[in-house]
Amino acid sequence: MHIPDGFLTANVYLPAWLVSAAFVWWFLKRLTKTLRERAVPLMGVLAAFIFAAQMLTFPVAAGTSGHLLGGALAAILLGPYAGSIIITLVLVVQALVFLDGGISTLGANILNMALLGTFITYFIYVGLRKMMGKNRVIPAAVISAWLSVVLASSLCGVELALSGVSPLRVVLPAMAGVHSLIGIGEAVITASVLKFLLKVKPELVYGKTQNE
Fold this sequence. Notes:
- This protein has helices at 10-34, 39-55, 71-78, 80-97, 106-132, 137-162, 168-200, and strands at residues 58-59, 65-66.
- The chain is mainly α and 212 residues long.
- It has one domain: Orthogonal Bundle (Arp2/3 complex 21 kDa subunit ARPC3).
- It has a two-stranded antiparallel ribbon.
- A hairpin with a 5-residue loop joins strand 1 and strand 2 (65-66).
- Helix 3 crosses helix 5 (106-132).
- The chain is globular and about 50 Å long.
- The two termini are 30 Å apart.
C-alpha cells in the first residue's frame, strides 16, 4: 500500500501533500491539548511496535503478502490524534530511511493510512461501539481494523487511477480485493493485542477511563 515515487502525477500528489500537511498540523495542535502525560511513553512503545510489525509480512493469496497497518490499533489505544501522529511518524521514517514509499508520494501515503486508515477509522470504531454497546470493544475493533485496511487501499487505488497507472475499474477491485484478505490479518492482530491489554491493563485503552 506504500506508493513509491513515480506512480502518482503532480495533480494527485501535490493536493495530497497539502491536505495531509494541514491535517497533521491540526492533529499536533489538538494533541498538545488532549495528550495525557502517561500516554507519552506508550506513544513511543506503540510506534516502535507498529514499525517493527510492519516489517513482518504474512502470505495472502497468489504469491502476495500483507503486513500490519496498525492505524486502528494506535487510535483505539491512544485516541485519533495521537494514533494518526504515530502512523505519520512511522511512514516518514520508512520513506526517508528505508525507502519504503516515496518522498513525493508521502503525502498520499499519510492521507491513506494516517488520515483515512487511522483518524476516520477511529470514529467508525466509536460508532460501532455505540451501536453494539460500549463494552463491545473487541467486535468493534475487529470490524474497524478490517475496514481501515480496505478503505486505505481503496483510496490508494483511486489515486493510482487518477494518475493514469491503471483504469479505476481494474485497480480499485484489485486493491480492495487483496487488502480485504490482508485486513483479516489486521483484525486478528488488533483484536489479540486489545484482548490482552483489556485483561492486564484496561486503562491503556483510550476511552475506557474518560469520555469518548
